[in-house]
């Protein structure tokens, strides 16, 4: 049985109308993945980017400083400040998990505030035949000559991420003319939810596919990335 599926996290952005009219840009915050096993470690799963009103990524002309905050610092912590470097449209940051629980991570820039939830713990073991393989991207929109993190995981019939009872190999294929993955093979470790890697977007505009296959379970998943070119914006 083969299953083709994709997942995109959507978050709300709070922005005064006056700023939207004057600047026409937004910051977005994503956590990919947004649910992790009871794995107390520092994980590179936070992602802040800038887009225009249509959701198309923009490239920062100057360094852009973003403030971060955790609603439950005894559960998970984040850096106080991160910087989207000049010439980039996003920045990754680590989230340090301390104990199980739900935590809200927020990012702010000037009058803009965005937030996302992270769930820590509650991993399930594989049971039953109704499994799906998923690819999780922080966004389906990409910009020339930038990078994007992604993760692969298993989902059960209830829509919950589950942990394999033994290491699971996942093969990655993609549109080589448009993007490049840092890894052609990923392994979801026993007892963990996810395996992580990074996509490098090359110098051509278009629609690029990325596909994940788990031969042992006869499962696959696919996602599309729309690659655009926009002029750098001064923020």
Task: Throw out a few tags for this protein.
single chain; 235 residues; mainly beta; Immunoglobulin-like; 6-stranded mixed sheet; 1 helix; 21 strands; 3% helix; 52% strand
Question: What do you see in this structure?
Answer:
- It is a single chain.
- The relative contact order is 0.22.
- Strand 10 (101-109) and strand 11 form a beta hairpin.
- The model is unreliable at 1-23 (pLDDT under 50).
- This protein has one helix at residues 17-23; strands at residues 7-8, 13-14, 26-31, 35-36, 42-51, 64-70, 76-77, 81-84, 90-97, 101-109, 112-120, 132-137, 141-143, 147-155, 161-162, 168-174, 179-181, 185-188, 194-201, 206-214, 219-228.
- The chain is mainly β.
- It has one helix and 21 strands.
- The strands form four sheets. Strands 1, 12, 14, 15, 17 and 19 form a six-stranded mixed sheet that branches. Strands 2, 4, 6, 8, 10 and 11 form a six-stranded mixed sheet that branches. The protein has a five-stranded mixed sheet with strand order 13-21-20-16-18, with no helix packed on it.
- The longest helix has 7 residues, at 17-23.
- It has one domain: Sandwich (Immunoglobulin-like).
- The radius of gyration is 18 Å and the shape is globular.
């Amino acid at each position: 049985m083969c299953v083709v599926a994709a997942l995109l996290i959507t978050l709300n952005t709070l922005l005064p109308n006056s700023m939207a009219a004057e600047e026409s840009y937004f910051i977005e915050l994503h956590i990919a993945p947004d649910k992790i096993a009871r794995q107390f470690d520092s994980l590179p799963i936070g992602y802040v980017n800038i887009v225009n009103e249509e959701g198309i990524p923009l490239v920062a002309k100057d360094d852009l400083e973003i403030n971060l905050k955790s609603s439950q610092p005894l559960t998970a912590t984040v850096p106080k400040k991160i910087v989207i470097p000049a010439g980039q449209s996003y920045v990754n940051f680590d989230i340090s998990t301390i104990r199980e629980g739900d935590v809200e991570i927020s990012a702010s820039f000037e009058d803009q505030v965005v937030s996302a939830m992270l769930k820590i713990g509650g991993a399930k073991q594989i049971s039953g035949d109704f499994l799906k393989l998923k690819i999780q991207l922080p966004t389906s929109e990409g910009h020339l000559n930038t990078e994007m993190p992604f993760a692969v995981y298993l989902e059960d019939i209830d829509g919950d991420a589950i942990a394999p009872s033994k290491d699971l190999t996942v093969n990655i294929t993609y549109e080589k003319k448009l993007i490049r993955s840092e890894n052609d093979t990923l392994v979801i470790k026993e007892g963990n939810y996810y395996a992580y890697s990074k996509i490098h977007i090359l110098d051509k505009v278009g629609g690029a596919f990325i596909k994940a296959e788990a031969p042992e379970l006869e499962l696959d998943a696919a996602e599309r990335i729309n690659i655009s070119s926009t002029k750098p914006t001064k923020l």
